[in-house]
Amino acid sequence: MIRKTIKNTLCAGALIFTLQMTTAQTTDKVSESTLERLITTKISMDKEGAFNDRYTIHIFQGENQPANAAKSRYDALDLVWKSELRYESPNHKVWVGKYSSRLEADRALLEIKKTFPNAKVLKP
């Protein structure tokens, strides 16, 4: 009697395990066009700086007119990284680029330091 109960329990357990494994392995296939659209969206969000956990380079901090002059001077260099002027009381700040890794930011910093020697990497 005990053997029969153990045997039935093991068979039921094996059956349940098998059913769970077959249903867990089924996946919905994503069409190639959907995948391409998602990748394109992710790349454009990266370029726009939609993610806040990025590094940036700080090149100037001070009053409005000198900050605008520093931004203009950077923009005249025609480098690939976009600059932005931000106001955080009481100073205007000029930040350059949004980098996903510290390594990318450091590479850009080497180029930017040629003109702005006091530039530094931040993670705002």
Intertermini distance: 70 Å
H and E string:
HHEHEEHE
Spatial strand arrangement across the major sheet: 2-3-1-4
Q: Residue share in helices?
A: 40-55%
What would the average pLDDT be, to the nearest integer?
83
Low-confidence stretches: none
Shape: elongated
Which structural class best describes the helix and strand composition?
alpha+beta
Give the strand content. 15-25%
Task: Please tell me about this protein's structure.
- By secondary structure, the chain is of the alpha+beta class.
- The chain has four helices and four strands, in the order ααβαββαβ.
- Strands 2-3-1-4 form a four-stranded antiparallel β-sheet, covered by helices on one side.
- A hairpin with a 2-residue loop joins strand 2 (83-88) and strand 3 (91-99).
Write the topology of this structure.
Elements: H1 2-24, H2 32-48, E1 55-62, H3 64-77, E2 83-88, E3 91-99, H4 102-112, E4 120-122
Antiparallel strand pairs: 1-3, 1-4, 2-3
Properties at a glance:
52% helix, single chain, four-stranded antiparallel beta sheet, 124 residues, alpha+beta, 4 helices
Quick structural overview:
The chain has 124 residues and is an alpha+beta fold. 52% of the residues lie in helices and 21% in strands.
